[in-house]
Amino acid sequence: KFVPLSGLSGVNVKKGPKDKAWGEESRGLADWYDGPTLVEAIDAFQPSKGNTLDKPLRLIVSDVYSEGKGVTARGRVAQGVLCAGDRVCVLPIGDEAVVSRIEHGSATSASASPYSYAAPAGGGTDNDAVVRSKFAASGDNVEVVLTGIDIARTSPGCVLCHSDPDLRPPVKRKFRAKVLVMEKLGVPVIRGAQVLMHMHSIDVPAAVSRLVCTTKRDGSVKSDRPRVLTGGVSATVEITSHERICIEEFGDCRALGRFALRRGGETIAVGVVEKVLG
């Protein structure tokens, strides 16, 4: 959505161009623009969920803690729909649990936890709140209370999915990916390079096990089996993590199909999963 404004004078950032507080600097904009201010446009923005509601459930856990007889997992629904009463599988462990309650929270203060802003205080009726407590959809940040599982079997970075084996993401160590090497790269990337792979809520040691090829901007192959990858290069590589993780092709699940490679505290490359190998 197009929102014209002036960063220098502040016209249409918080106050519209027709506000009496402005002088000559807002006259030109006030003659033709009667839309929202930047702040109003941001407040009213609703992110598109596309077709991710129809995809298999993927809830990425960012925090877990014990609550009574249940385990509370806080995280974001990357895709799919989760309902109270659903039986879910916690990967990569593979244990199953039952969703007893879903909490969206309410933002009452600036110090409230990030998940709370999924449902601002004062928005909607009591009936809406009851309905919302029974399900979570793609894009929601929620707290899910699980029963039938020990807290020691869960951890930040695990993924909740439906218990049906056909609807679970692969749990593998090796994959092929398209990467873009950062411009300011001190030491070139070679075969066998040890890196730290950052993906959503996890950091996993990994190795660049094979340099398949370098590519041009249009995706065509520039050179096969390069010896090194230097700064600014696009390439296809194979990566092997030191432990099994939930990973999917980028086209199937964006949250589980994108990553960053770090070395020595610096990001050396970013990429997306092209194919899960094993």
From TrEMBL:
Family matches, as SUPFAM superfamilies: EF-Tu/eEF-1alpha/eIF2-gamma C-terminal domain, Translation proteins
Claim: Nucleotide-binding is one of the keywords in the record: yes
GO molecular function, one term: GTP binding
Keyword terms, alphabetized: GTP-binding, Nucleotide-binding
Domain GTP-eEF1A C-terminal: 174-274
GO CC terms, sorted: chloroplast
Coiled coil, from the record: none
Membrane-spanning ranges: none
Main localization of the protein described in the UniProt heading: plastid
Any Pfam family matching the protein: GTP-eEF1A_C
Record's subcellular location: Plastid, Chloroplast
Domain of life (superkingdom): Eukaryota
PANTHER family: TRANSLATION FACTOR
Record's protein name: GTP-eEF1A C-terminal domain-containing protein
Source organism of this protein record: Trieres chinensis
